[in-house]
Automatic annotation (TrEMBL):
Keyword Metal-binding found: yes
Top-level division of the source organism's lineage: Bacteria
Residues that, per the record, bind a divalent metal cation 2: H124, H147
Molecular function GO labels: hydrolase activity, acting on ester bonds; metal ion binding
Official protein name in the record: TatD DNase family protein
PANTHER family: D-AMINOACYL-TRNA DEACYLASE
Entry annotated with the keyword Mitochondrion: no
Pfam family, one: TatD_DNase
Sequence positions that bind a divalent metal cation 1: H7, H9, E86, D195
Keywords associated with the record: Metal-binding
Amino acid sequence: MNFHDTHFHLDLMGDPEALVKQIETNKCYTIAVTNSPSVFFYSRSLSLGTKYLRAALGFHPELVSERYYELPKYLELINQTRYIGEIGLDKHRKSAANFNKQLDVFTKIISACRSCGDKIITIHSRKAEKEVLQIIGSNFPGKIILHWYSGPLKLIETALNNGYYFSFNLKMLKSNNGRKILQKLPIDRLLLESDAPFTLSQNQEYHSLLFQEMVFDLARLKKLSVNDIILSLNKNFKKLLK
């Protein structure tokens, strides 16, 4: 079985170079998200010459306050990759204090991506789902992935009508709220993500067994066969890349 991973923090893992080899061996199409423009160069260097790994240009909302000065560099780099993320908004606890600055950064990045067109963007939206949907809108000229969505069920229909995808991980499948969200989402809008290392328990390794467990759990939740789930997820990912 071949899998994909639309949200993986390669640069934060213990041995990134070994994991690149593993990704290539397993033929697991992987988007290596980053948390700031300065990290993008490293992830991109790891992806050079690979078939299954792509580096994404990110600016995590929790880092906006301390790295706001990197925004001009980010906007300079935006034409160097089709893949954007992790970007977004966060109103959870301490992150809410710098929300206006987050709005400024996110709005400018989305505007730049809109001008470029054809970007694949993975988005963080914790406690700020409404604002994220308002800023991106319904006619965005690119592909939007709402990563680890945990927001109100009532906003899901809007996101689906706008053509967005949702990426899910093992933590979502193990939580009551995550399962409620996944039950509401149609299978043709779902994508796999690991969000490693943040979803890994102590001493847990990143490998294909994680994705196998996710597929089996989703099949049980959706009351579909494992084969149907795999076929649908792979079809979604291929459509994402078009």
